[in-house]
């Protein structure tokens, strides 16, 4: 399964790359699809296959992470593993 997962921006490298963190796992992602949205450290974004799709607020991020974890069957762990292994260069 490949879900959109909330992650928090921890560093901004340039207009096309940022580092985000999910449950203590950090990696660089592409912000090319953000359509001119301004990003700041601390913002939450929805990540899918290494791309930030858009900003979301902290409440939505928290609720979405909670729901993904409730899916069970290792869904959250699978998504975290996928997130860890698919680094954007």
Automatic annotation (TrEMBL):
PROSITE patterns: HUPF_HYPC (PS01097)
GO terms (BP aspect): protein maturation
Leader peptide range in chain numbering: none
One Pfam family hit: HupF_HypC
SUPFAM superfamilies: HupF/HypC-like (SSF159127)
Gene Ontology MF terms: carbon dioxide binding; iron ion binding
Top-level taxon of the source organism: Bacteria
Family according to the record: Belongs to the HupF/HypC family.
Name used for this protein in its record: Hydrogenase assembly chaperone HypC/HupF
Natural source organism: Corynebacterium durum F0235
């Amino acid at each position: 399964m490949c879900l959109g997962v909330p992650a928090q921006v921890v560093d901004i490298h340039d207009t096309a790359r940022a580092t985000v963190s999910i449950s203590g796992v950090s990696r660089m992602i592409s912000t090319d699809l953000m359509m001119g949205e301004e990003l700041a450290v601390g913002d939450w974004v929805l990540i899918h296959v290494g791309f930030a799709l858009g900003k979301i607020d902290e409440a939505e991020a928290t609720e979405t992470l909670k729901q993904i974890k409730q899916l069970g069957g290792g869904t959250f762990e699978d998504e975290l593993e996928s997130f860890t292994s698919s680094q954007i260069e």
